[in-house]
Structure formats: structure tokens, C-alpha cells
Amino acid sequence: MCRPSATFAVWSSAWLNGAAASDDVLDALLAWGEAHDVVAADAAAAEAFTLPLAFNRAATPVQLLMALRSQGAKSMRLVLPVPGDVRGLGGGGPFAEAALRAGDAVVLPELGFGLVPQPIAEGLVRWTVYSLAPSSAPEYVGLGEAEHGLTDAIRNSAGALQALDVASDRPGVRAELSAHLRSRPDVDWPAGTPGRALRVLQRAEEIAAILVIASSDDPGGALSASASSLRAQALRPLSDAVRTARCAAVNEAVRVFAEQTAREG
């Protein structure tokens, strides 16, 4: 699956809404590291979540989960920022900078906080809680819109993808693609995760693997610098569509778990 923040968003949402146990959340996070700890980046986050500030002894993920519950967390959003596309990060600040460095984060729009994971040692991932700027509400993209956007991006980038498959001096590209997919962390999802969201995630993962191979194949059989540039331009919208699809699928799963609880209540 795409990033640690996606795993945390879906599984913690399932736990908050009674569809998973806390041990299930911890087990799911093991795909990204043997150990996880939690700190606060600022005094407001430390007070709200009863967490130590950075550079002090860290708290555990269980403490973070309990803090989310005590704070009444109902929804969360996955964001996958890259340079040139920082949607959902607001107008800057420490959270935006950390999320951009990490490439993924979880936004808690109702609470005004965000979480950023960062590997700090082999096997250890640290989650840092930040106070958000007032304008940090993520843009909402529906799952259907994201899925159609991914399909359109594939169609528009078909020429570049075809060039990847037939690139000279690059035999066995399909076997390489399969090997890359197998090397990704094997992440399970909670029972009740929407089937359509899972299908979109799988499709996005497959396209992302193609993009990784395309990047390693630079210039990918292009005959000139200008041809290579055109090829990169053709693939860039596909990369954007993959990130949008991943966010939409994860955020849809979070929404479904929250609405199930609302209906039962």
C-alpha cells in the first residue's frame, strides 16, 4: 500500500468506530516498521494529546489512539504532498514543511491537528503531532471523480506507457513490474473497508509501480533530450492522478467507517 499515513488513517478510523481492536491497528503498522513512537511538535499538541514534546521520551501508539478517542476524533484525511502540489497543507508552517519532507501525513480537520510519520532509525517510525494552521482543511475529492481521473490520465499517457514497454535495451519489463509489486509492504485492511476503495488502491499501486520503473529507465528509450522531456511531461499527470486516487480511496474508507457508527447510533 502507498504510505504509513494511509495505514494509520484507515485502521485507526476502524478502531475509533468499533470495527477493529487496538491490537489490529498496531499489527497493521508493523508493515512500516518494527516499532513506532509518538511525540508532539508544539505545546498545544502536547497538551491536547497528553504527549511529550519532541526530544523527550516518546509515547506509544496506544497513547495516541486513546488521545484521539478522548478528543472525540471522528474523521481524518490522508494527504500525499509533493513539491508543486501541497493541497491540504494550508498556508505553510511546521506541519506543512514536515509533511512535504515525509511525503505523507494525516490531517484531523475537526480537531485542528495533523500527524506526520518519519523513519528515524532502522525499524523505528516516529509519529509527530502538529497544530494546524487555520486554513489546513484538505480538499475533498470523491472516489468516483478520482477513479475517473486515473482512467483519463492512463489514457492520456498511453503513448508514454507504451514507450516504456518497448524501450530498447530494457527486456523483461513485465517481470520487473511484478517483482516491484511483490516488494511492497503487505498491508491488510479492516473488515468493512469498501470494495471500490480497495480496487482503486490496487489500481493506483499498479500504476505507481509502472511510474517507478519509468523513472529508473530514464530516458526510457527517448532519442533526444527533448523527447525525454516530453515523455516526462506525459507521465507527470499520471503521477498526480495516482496520489489523488490513493487519497480519495483512503478518505472514502474513513468516511464509511464513521458513517456506519453514526447510523448505528
Describe the protein.
Mean pLDDT is 83; it is low at 164-169. The protein has ten helices and five strands. Helix 1 (4-16) packs antiparallel against helix 2 (22-29) and helix 6 (143-156) packs antiparallel against helix 10. The protein is an alpha+beta fold and 265 residues long.
Features:
alpha+beta; 5 strands; 54% helix
The proportion of residues forming helix, as a percent range, comes to: 40-55%
Q: Give the CA-based shape.
A: globular
Structural class based on helices, strands and sheet pairing? alpha+beta
Biggest sheet architecture: 5 strands, mixed
Rg calculated over all Cα atoms = 19 Å
**Biggest sheet strand line-up:** 1-5-4-3-2
Order of helices and strands: HHEHHEHEEEHHHHH
Strand fraction = 5-15%
Poorly predicted regions: 164-169
Helical stretch count?
Answer: 10
Write down the overall mean pLDDT.
83
Strand tally is 5
N- to C-terminal separation?
32 Å
Topology:
Layout: H1 4-16, H2 22-29, E1 35-40, H3 43-49, H4 61-70, E2 77-79, H5 94-102, E3 105-108, E4 113-121, E5 124-131, H6 143-156, H7 158-165, H8 173-183, H9 195-216, H10 225-264
Parallel strand pairs: 1-5
Antiparallel strand pairs: 2-3, 3-4, 4-5
Helix pairs in contact: 1-2, 1-10, 6-10, 8-9, 9-10
